[in-house]
Amino acid sequence: MGLDEAKLLIDGWVRREGSGRDRLLPLLHAVQDEIGYIDDTLVPAIAAALNLSRADVHGVLTFYHDYRRQPAGRHIVKLCRAESCQSRGGAAMEAAAAERLGVAMGETRRDGQVTLEPVYCLGLCAIGPNALVDGRPMARIDTAALDRIAAEVAA
Amino acid sequence: MTRVFISRDMASVALGADDVARAFADAGCEVVRTGSRGLFSIEPLVEIETAEGRIGYGPATPADVAAILDGSHPNRLGDIAALPFFAKQQRFTFARCGIVDPLSLADYAAHGGWIGLDIARAAEPQAVVDAVKASGLRGRGGAGFPTGIKWQTVLDAPNSPKYIVCNADEGDSGTFADRMLMEGDPYCLIEGMAIAAHAVGASHGYIYIRSEYPFAIDTMRDAIALSAGRIAPFTLEVRAGAGAYVCGEETALLDSIEGKRGQVRAKPPLPALAGLFGKPTVINNVLSLAAVPFILSEGADAYANVGFGRSRGTMPVQLAGNVKHGGLFEVGFGITLGELVNDIGGGTASGRPVRAAQVGGPLGAYFPPSMFDLPFDYEAFTQAGGLIGHAGITIFDDRVDMAHMARFAMEFCAAESCGKCTPCRIGSTRGVEIVDRIIAARETEPARTATQEGTLGKALYSRAPDRIDVSLGAQTTLLRDLCDTMKYGSLCALGGFTPYPVLSALDHFPEDFGAPAPALEAAE
Ligand SMILES: Cc1cc2nc3c(=O)[nH]c(=O)nc-3n(C[C@H](O)[C@H](O)[C@H](O)COP(=O)(O)O)c2cc1C
Ligand code: SF4
Ligand code: FES
Fold first, then answer.
1. Residues of chain B with pLDDT under 70
2. Number of domains chain B contains
3. Is residue B402 within 8 Å of residue B408, measured between CB atoms?
4. ipTM of the complex
């Protein structure tokens, strides 16, 4: 999406949803849902739309783990790293996922097919290790499950 | 047409419930998607409506449809409520969860819904606050502050408008009760918030849900739209979080709703007096608010008669981690940790011995089995150097390395620190480094002998790495010292309570830190 198009998106959203300060997080969510990430070049437009300073928007954007400032892969695999999943062998699956998906934790694969990210608890803590694959929850991740995920994200 | 009940809870779906539901629909059944009953070893669970009530089968796969429909399937469980895991519970808050269609207003009304709200609205606000006080309900988000007293402060606050904020950030590993309730019985939370609104004179409320809970966000939004007429003139909206654990802290959460960085505010002022947008605000956990409809409809005594010491009523305990029968177990306070882990949970899923249980999420202490006679009670846990928190219990078998868990606690604190105060922001990173040195030293140092404190030219910590005394004794001392600083020098419980998992690991499992095992266990 080009910059002009993105600006239209932002202005349209603000007209529908309001331009109060408390609209900042919902607007950032909306931009990311639509474009996939929040490019730094959009910060001035977002700041102007909500009547905030650029520094303010930048501060919020960088505070929250959810917001991406770079494009992600076509598929996003989030693997839980929190304690309950660790107690069920999560650390080994973390290593196995990096190996089978061919990408380090927190990175996007060179070919842009997949991003592997840590998540700290999905609230599925009795059936871990758990993952979200393109938003779909998956429980009891083992190496066979990782092979299926690797095949899925190859497409 | 046969009616079949299958959960649409995120955990059930993660275990394949959608495929099972589709298979039953394809076989011509009427499939009702419910919340989860709360026992994950039998999920995906299928319940068939019969003249004798619902008959459960689980776990089930799409291939099992025919055998389940003709009643021959070996995973037949019969009446789910009669299973020991459920028969032993006292479901006050989760009475409907897993049974009703979460978005059906007819189901909700047929199962006792809205009675509490009608009673509250017929009463004076002060009478409602008094009922909540009399019930003994304490905040289920972690701190255990009496809910009625918080509401009284907001009721008495002269400023307006007032807000009701529900804390549904549930970031603790090992917890999922908020999520299950929002997905399985959303009107219960909505009713609790509407009662709170009447009690303190608020007209608008927010439910702040972490972004990791997409199903709960959708269900709550739908439920709010469907019940808008029932709770009017009170209005509600959902706000999605953005992946920051610290936003579960109440003042950080308020800043986040306001569109700011989720940084912790110094108190005073209390949120009850100057909270959201500077206005008087009730902020409560999902489970605190969802307990209120029962208290109003059944009476404060019915709630307060259950419990232990100053912990009244029930707690939806969550059995998690390496546990055989994990899930949601709502029960009166006073049950022991050992009963929960061994009798209800059935020990580990791996079949190996239980070595540790972490209670209360990433800021909670690790307990060894020798302490499992602790009763589930706010005061008893505080006295034992831990906390109940949001009542998640994460179970570990004998393969756990407690030094790694201590390191993880520090790492998590470093990753999630809001950055406002130094002990937490910097201390957590230093903590990771210290535990790393301990892990390196325990492998090389045969056994701890005399400490090298005072060795000329050596320091506990220095910017010149070769001057640091990396011996186990020195680093362990330093770790305790750092925990002390974090505990007493942090603004909020993220920095202040991270020492709980670290020190409990060090105290109860010293052998993992290169020190001799505690005498008590060695003697056994
Ligand atoms: C770092 C941190 C995280 C917290 N996370 C949560 C949370 O996810 N949910 C919650 O209800 N309370 C959480 N709390 C506790 C809240 O600050 C607050 O005590 C609670 O929302 C009050 O509601 P209650 O009285 O109903 O428990 C957290 C506190 C801290 C310090
Ligand atoms: S203890 Fe940590 S999270 Fe809490 S206010 Fe201080 S820096 Fe922020
Ligand atoms: S710890 Fe992984 S889902 Fe909760």
1. 446-457, 519-524
2. 4
3. no
4. 0.97
